Amino acid sequence: MTRREAEVEVEVPFYDLDPMNVTWHGNYLKYFERARCALLDSIDYNYPQMQASGYVWPIVDLKVKYVKSAVFGQKLLVSAALEEFENRLKLSYVVRCKESGTVLTKGQSVQVAVTLEGGEMQFVSPKVLFDKLGEPWPY
């Protein structure tokens, strides 16, 4: 499998801070989402294309490891990498300080395909995802 990865830059805005003047923990998920969308755009299978193909991909598992806090105005590099796709979409994330390269946060998410009609969870990723990734359909 070809390694697929995307990276976005985020500057921490004032409204993302908590009362301790560090980035509120929930906002890292928003940063993950921006990197995830960049990765999905790179394979032309972001949320509109997912729905057009007859599937939605809800997140069913999410892990976050907070290493160090980000602060107001800090420029971050947020990367998302595709780890698995055969039966689910498993992505890993790393949030780094753009200036120092220090890792601030790491995470993983797992999404599964669910049919738009009927809401049936798929235990194997649909062929359309393999096509978008340029991978052979094994089933």
How are the SSEs placed, and which strands pair?
Elements: E1 5-11, H1 27-42, H2 47-52, E2 55-56, E3 59-66, E4 75-84, E5 89-97, E6 103-111, E7 114-115, H3 127-133
Antiparallel strand pairs: 1-4, 2-7, 3-6, 4-5, 5-6
Offer a concise description of the structure.
The protein is an alpha+beta fold and 139 residues long. It has helices spanning 27-42, 47-52, 127-133; strands spanning 5-11, 55-56, 59-66, 75-84, 89-97, 103-111, 114-115.
Explain what this protein looks like in three dimensions:
- With 139 residues, the protein is α+β, with helices and mostly antiparallel strands.
- Helices cover 21% and strands 34% of the residues.
- A hairpin with a 4-residue loop joins strand 4 and strand 5 (89-97).
- The radius of gyration is 16 Å and the shape is elongated.
Total DSSP helices: 3
Which range does the strand content fall in? 25-35%
For the biggest sheet, the summary is: 5 strands, antiparallel
Q: Helix-strand pattern, N to C?
A: EHHEEEEEEH
The averaged pLDDT comes out at 96
- Low-pLDDT ranges: none
What distinguishing features does this structure have?
single chain; 139 residues; alpha+beta; five-stranded antiparallel beta sheet; 3 helices; 7 strands; 21% helix
